[in-house]
Amino acid sequence: MTSWITICDTCKRDDWDAESGITDGEALAALIEAEVAAQIPTQGADAPVKTRRVSCLMGCSHGCNIAVQSAGKLAYTLGRFEASAEDASAIVSYAVKHAATENGQVPYREWPQGVKGHFVTRHPPLPATSE
């Protein structure tokens, strides 16, 4: 099942350079998208990890923010990232591990070092509807 990395593209860190023309979230999104392409060269309907950008995850005090989500699995919001290749690589590596689990819970010992200390929230999966 595909795990989605949802990236807030409006995030601005406290030291954001307004003259750069792009937000820190946009810069991080571009790095994550490039890292997904590098780590998962075959994209398509069955890709284990995909990305999407959204405007505002409402975690401004934790910027830059991302969420890792998949249907029927635990979902996580992570924040306090920099727009760096190292952070993008750790995020994608974690999402690959999330995709490989049955319930979305990656054992702590398997977390990439770059995501440790960045978890903000965990959400249980939505209940299955029987309507």
From TrEMBL:
InterPro entries: DUF1636. This is Metal-binding protein. It comes from Litorivita pollutaquae.
